[in-house]
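As noted in the main text, all predictions were made from sequence alone. Below is one such record, for Deoxyribodipyrimidine photo-lyase.
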Amino acid sequence: MSDIIRRGYNWGMTTRSIVWFRRDLRLRDHPALSEACSEGEVLPVFVVDPAFDGAGAPRRALLHDCLAALDDATGGALVVRHGDPADEIPALADEIDASTVYVSKDYGPYGRKRDEQIADALRGADRRLRGIGSPYAVDPGTVRKDDGDPYSVFTPFSKKWRACGWSDPIDAPRRPNWIEAPSDGLPERPDVDVDIPSAGEDNVLARWRRFRDDGLDDYDERRDLPAVDGTSRLSPFLKYGVVHPRQLLAESDARSKAQATFQSELAWRDFYADVLFHSPDSAWEHWNDKFDAIRYDHNQAAKNKFERWCEGRTGFPIVDAGMRQLVESGWMHNRVRMITASFLVKDLHLPWTWGARFFLQHLLDGDLASNNHGWQWAAGSGTDAAPYFRVFNPTSQQERWDPDGEYVHRWIPELDSDDYPDPMVDHKAERQEALDRYEAVKGSS
Ligand code: FAD
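Prediction:
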């Protein structure tokens, strides 16, 4: 206690706790924060974990902005520590003599191990880690078949998911009693060319309500057209929990067909988190291990092809437009994510993990569960996978979803000039090659 007095902390008789923010960078509809505030004084903390260095510069810039906005919303009370949370959190709890560290539960493979380790350390000091809520409408592990098994097919999952339901959003705590403590300051904001969308709860809720009022009723008709601004663009903020899916579900109405489609996209997000929760290895390994038998290329020629894919120089305009949109804006339209992913795996015969890693480096919404299972869907090796033999044809996909060429011209200014490359492969031949390689999967036991 003498150390605490020396450091100049407030010292009252009320309960003191820490709210450790992770993927829940908001004050509204935050059950863990509300519970902590109802009990007494709270130290709001974010730990800049060196493990975050793997995220690309655009996502780190977004994280910086989300933290700055959260700090503002707390009136400058946010304490940021840089280091391994396994050291920082127990040390902070000792420093302020917190009885409880509140978190929104993390169900990812890394977060679960980290939290178990931290819960043990806190327990040793007679403190506890208390998880309330998660970044999902329905916590992973909750939706199960009648026999208790997890689902591996989306449609029955989504029916049960709806039946499980979710609680109504709650307000931000009225007058939180923040504890003061020294902060290491926000992480450095990387210099990026990508436009980072405005962070902060007010901005993000305003973005949602604009979309809800102007775009949601046309969602099912416009969401597949990459030239059109027909989707919510909320994914980066769902990733960091500036907004919670519960808030979007509460303000949309499943009786409208378009709104129900939007809600079911949020169910996909929960589904993939659930799949990853039950099969943590499926982050980087085939969910369907029959696909371990498939042959991908890894040689120098494969690396050269990969480079052309990354740079958006394949000679297939819809693929190249998508890759340029990704690198230049930190986001790619969902339809084009499916096309570019299919092209990498089935036209270039490269491992899906190469593409998934590249996406995670560049996407502002880069998320292990949605990204890597989106990739496994495209590669045919995941749950609910597109049948492997249904190979996307990039030319007919473009004709169907970008019939006027508006999207491809927007991202490829040289498209109509001699500077644009010829197609790097013959799609028909590579499709056959993909099907031939698939025979090994069919033959494996
Ligand atoms: P909207 O159409 O407005 O949808 C609303 C929300 O629903 C999204 O913000 C997202 O949280 C969720 N959602 C929508 N579609 C999906 C889906 N297919 N799977 C899971 N959640 C979905 N999404 C990510 O959030 N992070 C990723 O790293 C990611 N990587 C992907 C990689 C591939 C290969 C594919 C095919 C899809 C990936 N997606 C990922 C899913 C989807 O492309 C994005 O969520 C969507 O494009 C985000 O734009 P939006 O917010 O405007 O979506």
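The radius of gyration is 23 Å. Residues 1-10 have pLDDT under 50 and may be disordered. These features were considered when defining construct boundaries for the mutagenesis experiments described in Section 2.9.
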